[in-house]
């Protein structure tokens, strides 16, 4: 047995990450999965699982101390952390002293905060010489209107999204003069007249911080990366093509990802987003210091990034993860039985 990798609660990819590590290592790497809820669908892909204690029940509960004790008792060698990762990062030296390689997206909490604050992130990346979309934060109606005017003055279209969010929720592209009724007649597009948006915003009872950005017309790329304290170890670029995705390695998108990873000392399994401008040049959009929901997709093309991350954390040779040429993949949802939930219905009558 080569080692034990612990995956604590992630947003969307925990099941896939566990399955790909186990499958890719032929069972040589054991996976421990934990979650705040009894998620049988996630636990069934791990070798061992546990439900994490809840702070609401135990107000004085110290997550980092519990994690250190659990890692010791379970003989964990590496931990891919998402839940309470700032608490875990604060105990990074203690994990290291216990022989546990912690991978939490970054080596310090300030970097996680920087990547979560898109306007501050933009300033930092521009200062580092990395091409990044112009971004302005807005906390009220006046700031929102001013930000739209400022971005529009750069000669590009304007878009907006929540300062904090996932899955593209709340993203809108501003199209002046667009008929507002199109919001109810189109399935995709997320386009809206800016004045209609501003009027709706003004009527909102409460509002959260928004990010106003340049809208880039080119293709969007999602670069899933394995990094080791600022060094890019393995990666795969995914670009959507209608109902399919093109997966490849190398290219200008990766050059940007490598520069960001080095600048911020990113660490673990993370995701970089770029989009091409009108001239086809990739521009940095954002960095997610966590595994993306689609981090497992590229494994179908031959690049198993969760396995590469596990090997890196165990001090093993990752090996060649490059692709000779692009590969087209298509995602198909799977349906599976939950054995424990099914067994619990033994006394149930329809």
Secondary-structure element sequence? EHEHEHEHHEEHHEHEEEHEEEEHEEHEH
Q: Main beta sheet: strand number and arrangement? A: 7 strands, antiparallel
Radius of gyration: 22 Å
Question: Under the CATH scheme, which class of the largest domain?
Answer: Alpha Beta
Number of strands: 17
- Based on the structure, what is the oligomeric state of the protein chains? single chain
Beginning-to-end CA distance, first to last residue? 46 Å
What is the overall pLDDT average?
A: 92
Structural class: alpha/beta
Describe this structure in words.
- The chain is 30% helix and 26% strand.
- It is α/β, with parallel strands linked by helices and 350 residues long.
- The protein has three domains: 102 residues, Rossmann fold (3-Layer(aba) Sandwich), CATH 3.40.50; 78 residues, no CATH class; 112 residues, 2-Layer Sandwich (D-amino Acid Aminotransferase, Chain A, domain 1), CATH 3.30.470.20.
- The strands form three sheets. Strands 6, 12, 13, 14, 15, 16 and 17 form a seven-stranded antiparallel β-sheet that branches. A five-stranded parallel β-sheet has the order 3-2-1-4-5. It has a five-stranded mixed β-sheet with strand order 7-11-8-9-10.
- Strand 1, helix 1 and strand 2 form a beta-alpha-beta unit.
- 39% of the residues are buried.
- The mean pLDDT is 92.
């Amino acid at each position: 047995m080569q080692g034990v990798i612990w995956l604590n609660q992630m947003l969307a990819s925990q099941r896939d990450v566990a399955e790909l590590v186990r499958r890719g290592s032929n069972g040589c790497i054991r996976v421990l999965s934990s979650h705040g809820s009894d998620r049988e669908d996630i636990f069934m892909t791990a070798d061992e699982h546990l439900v994490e204690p809840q702070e609401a029940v135990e107000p004085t509960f110290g997550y980092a101390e519990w994690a250190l004790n659990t890692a010791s008792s379970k003989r964990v060698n590496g931990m891919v952390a998402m839940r309470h990762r700032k608490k875990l990062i604060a105990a990074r030296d203690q994990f290291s002293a216990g022989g546990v390689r912690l991978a939490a997206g970054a080596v310090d909490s300030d970097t996680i905060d920087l990547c979560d604050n898109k306007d501050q992130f933009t300033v930092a990346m521009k200062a580092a010489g990395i091409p990044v979309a112009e971004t302005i934060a807005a906390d009220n109606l006046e700031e929102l209107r001013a930000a739209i005017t400022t971005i529009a003055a750069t000669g590009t279209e304007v878009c907006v999204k929540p300062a904090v969010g996932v899955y593209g929720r709340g993203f809108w592209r501003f199209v002046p003069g667009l008929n507002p009724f199109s919001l109810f007649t189109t399935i995709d597009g997320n386009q809206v007249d800016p004045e209609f948006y501003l009027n709706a915003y003004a009527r909102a009872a409460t509002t959260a911080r928004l990010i106003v950005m340049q809208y880039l017309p080119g293709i969007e790329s999602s670069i899933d990366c394995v990094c080791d304290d600022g060094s890019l170890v393995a990666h795969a670029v995914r670009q959507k093509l209608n109902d399919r995705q093109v997966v490849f390695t190398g290219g200008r998108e990766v050059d940007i990802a490598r520069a960001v990873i080095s600048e911020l000392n990113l660490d673990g399994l993370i995701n970089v987003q770029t989009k091409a401008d009108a001239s086809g040049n990739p521009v940095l959009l954002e960095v997610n210091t966590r595994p993306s929901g689609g981090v497992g997709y590229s494994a179908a093309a031959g690049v198993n990034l969760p396995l590469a991350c596990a090997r890196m954390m165990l001090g093993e040779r990752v090996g060649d993860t490059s692709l000779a040429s692009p590969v087209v993949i298509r995602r198909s949802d799977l349906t599976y039985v939950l054995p424990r939930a099914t067994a619990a219905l033994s006394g149930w009558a329809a």
